[in-house]
Amino acid sequence: MKATIIRYGLLVLTTGALWISGCRKFLDETDPSNYTENTYFTKPEHARSSVNAIYASLREPMSGEFGGGPWTMTEFATGQAGTDLGQAVNSYFVKDLHNTADNAYGENYWRNYYKGISNANLSIAKIPGISMDAAEAKSLLGEAHFLRAWYYFNLVQMFGNIPLITEPVDLKSDQLRPMQAAPEDVYKLIVDDLTTAENAGLPWKDASGKVSLGAVKSLLAKVYLTMAGYPLQKGATYFDLAAKKAAEVLDSKQFKLFDTYGDLHNPAKKNIEENIFMIQYKTQVIPGSWQPLIIPYNKNISAYSAETGGIYATADFVRSYNAADLRAKEGQFFFTEFTNQDNRNLKVDLGGYFIYKLFDVTAQTTTANSDLNWALIRYADILLAYAEAANEVSGPGAKVYDAVNQVRARATLPALVGLSKDQLREAIWRERWYELCFENITWFDMVRLRKAFNLTTKGFDNYVGHKFSYGPVLTERELLFPIPSTELRNNPNLVPTKGY
Q1: How far, in Å, CA of 119 to CA of 166, rounded?
Q2: Strand, helix or coil at 277?
Q3: Alpha carbons 174 and 424: distance in angstroms, whole number
Q4: In terms of pTM, does the model score above 0.85?
Q5: What is the pLDDT of residues 327-378, one digit of tens each?
Q6: Torsion-angle region of residue 337: left (phi > 0), alpha (psi -120 to 50) or beta?
């Protein structure tokens, strides 16, 4: 952690979070390089700027061209993704279950998410000392607590026993080389942070993309659902908490499913309706950076010069969808053909199932500069989280069926009826696998459930011992990603991840 703390102990004030529909000052922060941590936090605008900086770390793992992209790490870990990008060795290490602590993807997540935590700690410590409107300060602190919870929630799921740092760190701090905390302690902080954010007076929705009450309650539902499962195994009480928190989101009537899957990758639908919380991008300012990774290798279909073939769905996964499922039809979640960049009347066979749900049509065909946001939490996820948790609490019921069947109806699938609790459980899991694929969710489901989807039987295997359709077999070590070797070298108090 030494490298992380020393390098990022001072707030990166030049990197504001990007809000599209807000005032231009969000996009045009001047460089306050003459400030120090001790002299900066004196005005209300400094509080806003400091919180803006916390959001920036969300974007860092999303990059990707010929070197691959850190965000693909949890997708290759599912066994449902393929790649043609030979030089992206980090992708193959994860995909083929030969991962090591030297993997740059994991290091990127660790470094940038702890940078976000460091910035959150600084805002949480300094904003109360600024003379400003009390309601505004409370709201800003709510955003900071939510973002710290987001970063810790992802880190503890990925890496297990991680350092828990809650205050700004300098060269004299006892936490300069921190020990690892038990996951239970990390989850306690996550819940405490989200409870603080829940009471911060945030609006239910925020069209500019800032943290909203809907995002807070949605994340709490996901956290409780995870705590009910592995590794904490808190069971029924936490399934009940997850169901109740997700129900608050459903009952608010603030969100709804998009009418079409095309809206999932429509820049005009940023931060509204189904999109509860997103990473913000803006064409020509901070454009979305994952587009070159999701197009086939050198097929000349794209305005991007880099056509990498970096990640696509395996044929076995796509073919496991029900034949009637709209999501698996051409141009819905996946696409197998597209027009030639030099002649849009000419169709090109892509040779695989590429990920259309992440595809910015305008950027790919004309601008090579994406205006698409990345969805971190969408309403379909919360509908299915509610259905899963509520079924565990009280079994099949009208509201449980309604939640899962809303997702199925859009996919043109018949409504589920008349199932036992056990049958409905697996039916809901299948909907999560099919609906939320390639959104950095499936691997986290696999780990909390200790289950993996069998593409042949359409049932669920135990995680340990599950065989990917292309051969590798999951072992206990794949329940976590390894703590990066750079951190192990910089902090002798860290214990390497078991199996690595």
Answers
A1: 10
A2: strand
A3: 50
A4: yes
A5: 999 999 999 999 999 999 999 999 999 999 999 999 999 999 999 999 999 9
A6: beta
